[in-house]
Specification:
This protein has 27 helices and no strands. The protein is an all-alpha fold and 524 residues long. It is globular and about 75 Å long.
Length: 524
């Protein structure tokens, strides 16, 4: 039986044993995971684990009366979901890798305590896929080999392994084989029930990678129709999450067809999920970005600096959680969008971020070509024209009407002025402010760092740099700043005459005052 069936059956037995709260947790955890609600997953799993451990310890004759319920399989099931939501809906890669490897290493054999309903090995495979879908195929193939999965074939976890193998084939550029594998299940009596909605989305992905966009849309239509029939027969608790995923995929498919001139762009726009929905489930953000970029190319969606901030924020999210391929793909999208609206500095920063992330990947032939194309677009942009002399650019920008304020233009003008006045504290501070607005604070710190290292006594510049580092939660950068300022203070004191006031004694005190907010924030 598949995991969803196991969960329903186990919940029924728990309710029969009088454990309503635990039964609710068993059925609710996979739904919360699907919805991407990691906070609730953690809370529900922790509470349920406490109850389950107590029941397992007290089982005695009760275990015999309710076999397979008060035992290790249920405990493993409850413990599985906090990591599953991180590598699933949240799309975490290297940040979750050590925990995923430890969980897979400590996992017992599938039948040691009775058939396990889930497997930590699935989470490890997803984690590796998040890190680099094209570059980790060999690692995943070994994890999914027949030798490694021996004994799992008749457990509820087996469908998840089957789908992991299908996605592996797609990442190995064998989408036709992946489709054939899924079609084989489609024509068996239990196949559709075994793989469920996850199998449908895997088929859509295989079709999309073969440019069979119309077939993929028909597949989504059938799934949506089935959900409608289920709603008539009774509420499906997964319906909301599944319909959301259908909308993301359909918007991506329709937007591409619109870009090719094979579909009315208004259909894709009408189906486009909100930004808030993409924010709530990070693994859906690439689909949203792809759909929007296609519609921007059609002139159907406005390409402004706010869209750039959104895509850059998401790229940096994947960079932060150790998913460099997704981060690089979004950084390239941000580069192309910035080129389209003439934002040269943002385009250069995004291209540089993409290049850095691509350096962490394997299997880079295709994405390296995308990078070369993006760099060519940046190189063909017109040079930035100063709107005012460097010494008066800040006054000029502040005098602009509020409705004409464009942070990307401000950043470009400040950078041009800094090329002539690299140690102007006011310009450095302004760059930090606009960099934070554009979520490019890491790029804004580069000239700030150069100045602070050369002139560590400039407290205004150090404060501006500190604010930028804190905005990025860059704890390592804050520590580096503390060391830099402390070294500068000692150097100043050594050259001062005989420990005069304002030398060694004053500087460390100033350093302490400046970095204290970082400590408060880190503690929170």
């Amino acid at each position: 039986m598949p995991m969803w069936t196991w969960a329903g059956e186990t919940a029924r037995r728990l309710r029969a044993a009088g454990q309503e709260e635990l039964a609710e947790a068993v059925t609710r955890l996979p739904r919360l995971c699907e919805a991407g609600d990691s906070v609730k997953v953690e809370a529900v799993a922790r509470s349920a684990m406490r109850t389950a451990r107590r029941l397992v310890a007290e089982a005695g004759n009760r275990e015999a009366a309710v076999p397979g319920v008060f035992g290790p399989p249920t405990l493993f099931y409850l413990a599985y979901w906090p990591l599953a939501v991180r590598v699933g809906a949240l799309g975490e890669g290297r940040r979750a890798l050590a925990q995923a490897e430890a969980a897979a290493r400590d996992e017992p054999a599938p039948h040691t305590h009775g058939p396990l309903p889930v497997s930590a090995r699935v989470s490890l495979v997803r984690c590796q896929s998040n890190i680099d879908a094209r570059g980790t195929t060999e690692i995943r193939r070994e994890l999914l080999s027949a030798r490694s999965l021996s004994g799992w074939e008749d457990t509820p976890a087996w469908p998840a392994f089957t789908l992991a193998r299908v996605h592996l084939l797609i990442d190995e550029e064998q989408a036709d084989r992946a489709e054939a594998e899924l079609r084989r299940y489609e024509h068996t009596a239990t196949g559709p029930a075994l793989l469920g909605a996850e199998g449908v989305f895997a088929l859509v992905r295989a079709l999309r990678h073969q440019d069979k966009h119309t077939d993929a849309l028909e597949t989504l239509d059938r799934l949506e129709a089935e959900l409608g029939l289920e709603e008539e027969r009774g509420a499906n608790p997964r319906r909301t999450a599944l319909l959301r995923s259908i909308r993301f995929e359909r918007a991506r498919l329709l937007s591409w067809l619109a870009r090719l001139g094979l579909c009315d762009a208004r259909k894709a726009i009408a189906l486009l999920p909100t930004v808030e929905e993409a924010e709530a489930c990070p693994n859906l953000r690439p689909a949203w970005t792809e759909a929007v970029e296609n519609l921007v190319c059609q002139g159907s969606v406005r390409n402004d600096w706010r869209l750039g901030v959104r895509v850059t924020t998401w790229s940096r999210y994947f960079e932060r959680v150790g998913a460099p391929r997704r981060g690089a793909e979004l950084a390239l999208a941000a580069t192309r969008l910035a080129c389209g609206r003439g934002a040269r500095w943002v385009a250069e920063c995004s291209a540089r971020r993409a290049e850095q992330l691509i350096g962490e990947l394997g299997g880079v032939e295709e994405i390296t070509g995308d990078l070369a194309e993006a760099r060519s677009m940046v190189g063909s942009m017109a040079p930035i024209r100063p709107l005012a002399p460097s010494e008066g650019i800040l006054e000029f920008l502040r005098a602009r009407p509020a409705e004409e304020v464009d942070p990307e233009e401000q950043a470009e003008q400040v950078n041009v002025a800094l090329s002539a006045r690299p140690h102007d504290t006011a310009l450095l501070s302004a760059l930090g402010q606009v960099g934070r607005t554009l979520m490019l604070s890491d790029a804004a710190t580069e000239p700030q760092w150069r100045h602070v290292r050369e002139q560590p006594g400039d407290q205004r510049a150090a404060l501006s740099l500190l604010e930028t580092l804190m905005h990025d939660n860059d704890t390592a950068g804050v520590r580096d700043l503390v060391r830099t300022l402390a070294a500068g203070a000692l150097s100043t004191g050594e050259t001062a005459a005989g420990g005069q006031p304002g030398g060694v004694a004053a500087a460390p005190e100033a350093v302490t005052r400046m970095v204290q907010p970082a400590g408060v924030r880190e503690a929170r």
